[in-house]
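Appendix C: a fully annotated inverse folding record. The material below is reproduced so that readers can follow the format used throughout the book. The structure is listed first as tokens, followed by the designed sequence.
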């Protein structure tokens, strides 16, 4: 396999590069990003080439044996950021098509589905975007589909569950672990919200598996990627409580009844598992435990 990875310097991109480097699942990798400083460890590494977005558009390359994994998209609902992400996608795909690349794996998001869905989202569910971020993701899914159909290329639109992992403090799991270690007390709202996080390493392995699909009939589709596990904030708190108990650390949890918000981020990834054999390995407990010990090491240092 040979990959072009756009957005290689982001959270998912860096983890994907790490897995590719360790597992030698690619003969050649061209990593693209606006800023290459975060990719300095790959500067002289065998099989890896680095290129800024701007330079890539000027080079004359033969990419006929390469598969694109497109991770580049702003983690923002700011209009200018989303607009910039779209403009880069247009330029990237036009350059790839001119360079002979005919396989595109595009990373979308579970957030294109109804945020108040009753059950895990399936690919047949109608999208129901609620933020500009989601609208941009769904627009690019359709643009890439139409672009691929026009130019006779193969594409995948992969709707990923929300990611967690080392050095990614945005999620509620990280925030609760940090607060528990700081205050030895948590207050949680029992509002019934359903979470379903996927570890970034599981996501990286899923992307590699998607690019290796052999059957043409498995391409030109939308797939959900995520774990079967779904849980509430109370389930997360229980995991933290169990880990604190194992380490003989005190922890008080205040459970506060709250109005149900009906939010649900879970997906049904049955179709993707069937065509690739991939399955998520990290459970909620694994995720919380990793974050706990990572934060503990930081505090010890």
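Designed amino acids, in order:
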């Amino acid at each position: 396999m040979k990959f072009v990875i756009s957005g290689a310097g982001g959270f998912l991109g860096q983890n994907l590069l790490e897995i590719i480097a360790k597992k030698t699942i690619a003969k050649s990798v061209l990593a693209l990003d606006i800023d290459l400083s975060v990719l300095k460890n790959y500067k002289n590494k065998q099989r890896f080439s680095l290129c800024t977005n701007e330079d890539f558009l000027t080079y004359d390359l033969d990419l006929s044996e390469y598969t694109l994994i497109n991770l580049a998209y702003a983690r923002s609902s700011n209009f200018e950021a989303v607009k910039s992400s779209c403009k880069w996608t247009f330029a990237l795909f036009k350059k790839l098509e001119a360079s002979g690349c005919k396989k595109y794996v595009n990373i979308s998001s579970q957030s294109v589905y109804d945020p108040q869905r009753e059950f895990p989202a399936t690919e047949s569910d109608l999208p129901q975007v609620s933020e500009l971020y989601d609208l941009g993701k769904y627009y690019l899914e359709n643009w890439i589909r139409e672009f691929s159909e026009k130019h006779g290329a193969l594409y995948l639109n992969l709707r990923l569950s929300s990611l967690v992992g080392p050095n990614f403090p945005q999620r509620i799991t990280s925030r609760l672990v940090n607060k528990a270690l700081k205050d030895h007390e948590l207050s949680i709202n029992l509002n019934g919200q359903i979470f379903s996080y996927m570890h970034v390493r599981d996501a990286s392995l899923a992307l590699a598996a998607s690019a290796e699909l052999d059957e043409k009939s498995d391409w030109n589709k939308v797939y959900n990627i995520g774990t079967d596990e779904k849980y509430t904030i109370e389930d997360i708190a229980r995991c933290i409580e169990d880990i604190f108990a194992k380490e003989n650390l005190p922890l008080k949890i205040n459970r506060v009844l709250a109005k149900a918000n009906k939010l649900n981020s879970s997906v049904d990834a049955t179709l993707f598992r069937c065509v690739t054999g991939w399955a998520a390995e990290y459970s909620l407990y694994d995720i919380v435990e990793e974050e706990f010990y990572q934060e503990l090491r930081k505090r010890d240092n």
